[in-house]
Amino acid sequence: MLDASIDSIMVIDEYGIIQAFNRAVLTGFGYEGHELLGRNVSMLMPDPHVSRHDTYLENYVHTGERKIIGIGREVTGRRKDGSIFPLHLSVGEFQSSGRRYFFGICHDITERVELNHRIVHMASHDALTGCLNRHQLVARINQAVATGQPFAVLFIDLNEFKAVNDNYGHRIGDRLLEMAAQRLRSALRKDDLLGRVGGDEFVACLTSIASADAALDTAQRMIRHLGEPLQIEDATVVPRASVGVSLFPEHGDNADDLINQADLAMYHVKTASREDDHEQAGVGHETAAAPAHVYIFDRTLRERSLRQHSLLARLRRAVADGALELHYQPQFDLRTLRPCGLEALLRWRDGEHGLIMPGDFLPLARRHGLMTSLSAWVLRQACHDNMQLIQAGVLDVPVAVNVGAQSINDRGFIPMVRRTLQEFGMAPDQLELEITEDMAVDFTARALHNATALVDMGVHLVMDDYGAGFSSLKQLKKLRFSKLKLDRSFIAALPDSLEDQSIVRTTLTMAHEMMIPLVAEGVETEEQLAYLREHGCEMGQGYWYARPMPLEHLVEQLRAPRSVPEPALTVS
Predict the structure, then answer these.
(1) What is the largest CA-CA distance in the chain?
(2) For the range 251-260, what are the long-range contacts, defined as Cβ-Cβ under 8 Å and sequence gap of 24 or more?
(3) How confident is the model at residue 44 (pLDDT cuts 50, 70, 90)?
(4) In whole angstroms, what is the distance from residue 192 CA to residue 1 CA?
């Protein structure tokens, strides 16, 4: 009957000597029967329980004080090969022929213990990267706060992670997160903490860091470890990061505040590294991030955050109430000086701060998910206004709208464009969608599909800021652009700069060979105009001809009689 039991059962006498056992004992502990019989049961126990067992047994025999008799508990056993494993043990006693004996019933609970460990780990760690989850990280940072010892918190954000998911798929993105976590962990000391608090966001707690310089050194080391190229299946990825730092106790006295301050510092360095020289930018202008670096929190960031929070609240109301407006800057034919196009540029007339330029509120809109609503509004308003100009016989030219990365990657973008054109009865060739060169270089498969669908629909694609990025002739051909807009940085120093002269002439030659019209941005002087005319540039846009203006002012200027042939428009 005992041999039929899957539990290990053995009998010992009052001196701990093994008297009997069932087959499960031999299987579970790895011994032969003759190796156990007559030996002390302590041979099945790991240190330090071996030395204490006889003392405990002797004490119980003389005093009757129970510690384990009749009580099930978890203990550890030792097999013949020396391996240690967890057991659940129940001990009882009985009398036979005037002698006292004890019997133990036990079974291996390794699977249960491992399962419990996994459950505990899952409750406190991120399943993908093995880092602490946010809840556990906050608890551990608060424990560090309770010690009163100085330490640092680092908020790490992977730059352009969404582009990896869009270009290569979420499997590659997940693998990138795993490998990034490994690299970040390799830059930390044993007692430091690493948690994952968002999709591509990590937080490190550097225990016993006493100075800002030490925290910066660790942050730079993390960036170096992270920045080596990764080969993930067929994709080569070079991870980059922005890091914000907060210090205890200077910047907060609890985990939430310290993490939030480090997050603010990270966001500051992330946005500060973005080059945005598009003073007249409309919706969707985005620029490539500069190499990642580190910033330590200061109080001005909190003040700026409060101002941005107020700005965001007013922006949400403005979007909901339609309190936005479009200004229009004409493009002109360099030969006839007549308008040949319009660019729609978003403006926000705020009751508190007056006219706000897009560079001051679009980054906030991108971060807080307002771009879809803004882009839809701009597209509808631009089509509406252009049809008014066409139907009134004032001006019949295409209107250009800037398109952001979020829009061109959106599955619903093509249907939205089609519905908008149908709503206002505007021909597709009367709409131009401007895409910055840096966006075109990093086009995802979805963006390429949408761009192709737009061209097939009859909508014109325009590469904005040409020359500021790294596009290739192959990219120009693949995306079927109908215009190139030469970046204003190459026009500003004309005709004095020999280097810019060479760039402009080369670009014009290439555009003519590919039969793609060129628009020179930022034309501001007669000398620039004369040089561009002389070298065959077809179109221009800039302050020399007209500044951006509301629709009603544009209509007034277009209807006004002109006494001189140039410039055609002189709105200030």
Answers:
(1) 132
(2) 251/297, 253/145, 254/142, 254/145, 255/137, 255/138, 255/139, 255/141, 255/142, 255/145, 256/138, 258/141, 258/153, 259/138, 259/141, 259/153, 259/155, 259/197, 259/203
(3) very high
(4) 55
CA-based angle 417:422:428, to the nearest 5?
A: 60
Instruction: Summarize pLDDT for 391-442 with one digit per residue, the tens.
Output: 999 999 999 999 887 788 888 899 999 999 999 999 999 999 998 766 665 6
Strand-strand pairing, 354-356 and 549-550: unpaired
**Cα–Cα distance, 406 to 375 (Å, whole number):** 9
Under 8 Å between Cβ of 274 and 367: no
How confident is the model over 91-132, as pLDDT tens digits?
A: 988 999 889 899 999 999 999 988 888 888 778 889 899 999
Identify each DSSP E strand in 256-305 by its residue range: 294-296
Q: Does residue 245 register a pLDDT over 90?
A: yes
Of 498, 496, 553, 486, whose CA–CA distance to 523 is shortest? 486
Cα–chain center distance at 74: 45
pLDDT at 564: 44
Q: Is 71 helix (H, G, I), strand (E, B) or coil?
A: coil
Handedness of CA 106, 107, 108, 113 (dihedral sign): negative
Strands 539-541 and 518-521: parallel
Taking 3-state DSSP, the helix, strand and coil percentages for the chain, each rounded to the nearest 5, stand at 45, 25, 30
CA–CA distance, 572 with 543 (Å, rounded to integer): 9
Q: How far apart are CA 407 and CA 425, in angstroms?
A: 22
Tell me which DSSP letter residue 522 carries: -
Question: Any idea what DSSP says for residue 419?
Answer: H
Q: What is the pTM of this model?
A: 0.58
**Per-residue pLDDT tens over the stretch 510-559:** 889 888 999 999 999 999 999 999 999 999 999 999 999 999 999 998 88
